[in-house]
Amino acid sequence: MATDVHGTVSPKSVGAPAAGTALAPSPTDFDTAPDVDTDTDTDTNDVEVEGGVGVEGGTDAGFVEGGSAAVRVAGLTRSFDGRAVIDGLDLTVRPGEFVALLGRSGCGKSTLLRVLAGLDREIEGEVSVPRRSAVAFQAPRLMPWKRVWRNVLLGLPGRAERAVAERALGEVGLSHRTDAWPKTLSGGEAQRASLARALVREPDLLLLDEPFGALDALTRIKAQRLVAELWQRRGCAVLLVTHDVEEALLLADRAVVMDRGVIAYETAIDLPRPRDITDPRFAALRGRLLERLGVDDTEITHESPDA
Amino acid sequence: MSLDQAIVADQSSAPPDKSLVSASSAPGPESSSASAGPELVTLVPVSARRRAVPRWLRRTVGPVGLLVLWQVLSGTGVLHPDILASPGTIARTAGSLVSDGTLPSAMLVSVQRVLVGLVLGGIAGVALALASGLSRLGEDLVDATVQMLRSIPWVGVIPLFIIWLGIGEAPKIALIALGVAFHLYLNVYAGIRGVDAHLVEAGSSLGLGRWGLVRHVVLPGALPGAMTGLRYSLATAWLALVFGESVNADDGIGFLMNQAREFFRTDVIVVCLIVYALLGLFADFLVRTLERFLLQWRPTFTGQ
């Protein structure tokens, strides 16, 4: 699917008020742009990016001029007290693509997500995201003083109807909790309500910040399936920040590893869906990604990433 | 197979593999007493142990006993009426004060003072708290000033208020408003600043603008603090009323008390004290009811 309107996340110095995702429209209309499909997974299985340099050197995975994109990041830098957490990062996500962003804790992956969500504007570089994007955080962050359906409608422009919320809640299997207070929801239910709140915005880009991190193992499996289902039905681009390699391999089209402020490694996950953990290709990918993440003690023997 | 396992198998006449399971749940297969099993204690449900005297009855014993003692002391002449009237006299006095309309009209005047003071002080306190809670500029201008003034004991300004405002209604209402405003300011301000930053961030990611954030996130989030502030300020309002009315008054409950003091009518004084207490309790009840309605979303709330 194509994205409707693109906006540019402007740095704070431009003077954008703390108005959330109300972004200035970019002059480029990506709808009319031809879909030059030269992205990673069609050409090669995975792409090595020179550590710390960025994507200029010998990769076709990055910025594709004129191509349709749901996320377009070029030379993004975000510093905290002079220390660059994101350091000249480039990333392109195609419309409808499911990208998993992996990385060790503190590598800046959540910072990147906050930038893409428009919550952090103290940035340098160029960032374009769809006007309609939505975030689901690790904690559900439901307003405790609003009933579930009012939480779902919060922030929607115009007078939103209760039926709209009911539809979204039905989609995540929460129809029976429409009128509940958030405090009465279980962890999984709250997370699903948070998903419904993101989906009701009909986003072209859905940003998920470790949304399953706080769930117990069984609830997590259900929630992952739900996300896979919703993504296939909605066709929006998804950027999933996670530290769970298996989760990335179960859900994503492409896994991107962030290290030292840049995308240090990425690989297409061209396994058939629904995915099977016992598939040997799954295990091979898992081993390779874990190695990239600095976990060496796997039962998988090291193999060349350019296999 | 050890001896105890064989015995268990015998007793239960279960298949051998099941007996192994039951034997393994004993403290240990080597234990010689395992064949008899551990000594079991029957856990009696609480309901079966509960005695016939209900808790509320036990709790009323103390106050009732005190009343009886008081009545006995007064009846035997140990407690002179000029020191403290007997409970019986007080009840009769209360009855006559109510029936001749003295007490109701005095209560009306006092309650009016509290309400006017509460509304004025409430508006001032909340407005200042919003100004300093919602904007950095407001904080710099307002908060330091209020924090400084707060260290002045508000009861101490009565002489100034009398000089400025005379001895009519104005100084009493001003005193109540002052006490109310400080409490509300502090709690509403703390409530606003205590709102979870994550929720504000979530709200802004949902597309809420500045006013939307204030309306849907910040103000509801500050409500628990505001309700606490309201309760404190109500208590303060009654206290301010007592102070204000005891200085000078020509009507109201305070006036009744002052008049009674002149004639050593301890019964009237006690009736007035009871009225103050009941009015305070009633106000607290109102706020609690309001809280039950407004804060039912709170995870910590257990009132329903």
Main attributes?
heterodimer; A: 307 residues; alpha/beta; Rossmann fold; 7-stranded mixed beta sheet; 5-stranded antiparallel beta sheet; globular; disordered N terminus; B: 304 residues; mainly alpha; MetI-like fold; 74% helix; flat
Notes on the protein architecture:
The complex is a heterodimer of chains A (307) and B (304). The longest helix of chain A is centred in the last third of the chain and has 18 residues, at 217-234. With 307 residues, chain A is an alpha/beta fold. Chain A is globular and about 45 Å long. In chain A, helix 4 crosses helix 5 and helix 5 runs parallel beside helix 6 (217-234). Chain A is built from 8 helices and 12 strands. With 304 residues, chain B is an all-alpha fold. Chain B has 2 domains: 3-35, no CATH class; 95-294, MetI-like fold, CATH 1.10.3720. In chain B, helix 5 packs across helix 13 (266-294). The longest helix of chain B is centred in the C-terminal third of the chain and has 38 residues, at 210-247. Chain B is flat and about 75 Å long. Chains A and B meet through loops of A and helix 10 and helix 11 of B.
Biggest sheet of chain A: strands, sense, closure? Answer: 7 strands, mixed
Beta-strand residue percentage of chain A:
15-25%
Helical segment tally of chain B? 13
CATH class of the domain at 6-29 and 61-141 and 185-292 in chain A: Alpha Beta
Radius of gyration of chain B: 32 Å
CATH-derived architecture of the largest domain in chain B:
Orthogonal Bundle
* CATH-derived architecture of the domain at 6-29 and 61-141 and 185-292 in chain A: 3-Layer(aba) Sandwich
N to C succession of SSEs of chain A: EEHEEEEHEEHHHEHEHEEH
Fourth CATH level, the homologous superfamily of the domain at 6-29 and 61-141 and 185-292 in chain A: P-loop containing nucleotide triphosphate hydrolases
Low-confidence stretches of chain B: 1-29
Biggest interface in this structure?
A: A-B, 28 and 23 residues
Q: Roughly what is the average pLDDT of chain A, rounded to an integer?
A: 78
Kindly report the CATH topology of the largest domain in chain B.
Answer: MetI-like fold
* Oligomeric state of this protein: heterodimer
Largest sheet of chain B: none
Q: Which range best describes the helical content of chain B: under 10%, 10-25%, 25-40%, 40-55%, 55-70% or over 70%?
A: over 70%
- Report the end-to-end length of chain A measured between terminal Cα atoms: 32 Å
Helix content of chain A: 25-40%
